[in-house]
Amino acid sequence: MTVLSESLLSLQKSLQLLPGIGExxxxxxxxxxxxxxxxxxxLISDAILNALDKCKPCSNCFLLSDTNPCPICADDSRDSSLxxxxxxxxxxxxxENTNEYHxxxxxxxxxxxxxxxxxxxxxxxxxxxxxIKNNCFSEIILALSPSTEGETTMQFLSEHISQxxxxxxxxxxxxxxGGDMEYSGVSTLVNAFxxxxxxxx
Length: 201
Ligand SMILES: [Zn+2]
Fold this sequence. Notes:
Elements: H1 6-15, H2 23-35, H3 38-54, E1 56-57, E2 64-65, E3 79-86, H4 89-98, E4 103-107, H5 125-133, E5 139-142, H6 148-161, E6 167-170, H7 186-194, E7 197-198
Parallel strand pairs: 3-4, 3-5, 5-6
Antiparallel strand pairs: 1-2, 6-7
The structure holds zinc ion.
């Protein structure tokens, strides 16, 4: 007879699905939640269910939002000549935090990574094309990480966007966000925007 609680094990396995959570941490968290933090566990599970119900990608730009269109797409005062393409919603929150950029956004959802089977069908290319056609952008800023996947994606997008005859720029490199904008400070990100430069095919 096993002494392991199946439900506890199932909770642990679910927690292990989260990025950066290994087996030991998941087990510690599961036991913590079930031993003396049941109120906390209820709060977390309610918050997850609530977010699952209310938080959806905006049908224009795919920012995760409780409203559709999202507050950015609904804001007429934003600069509608600028489009900033990011990998995910988190990048938009980071950029908004700088108060440097006031244009529109588009969330790509993925970076191209042929080795992991992530090709052009796994990024929101058709949706991006539609978004560009439905707007009058004069500049498209690729705010993707300077990782191998980010560079591959920026190269692909700059060639792809050339059909629309719109200037494509990228954030200045030399910023230490090696794969993740999260780790660059606000001032670094502000400088990366101010020193953005055109991409040539
Ligand atoms: Zn939106």
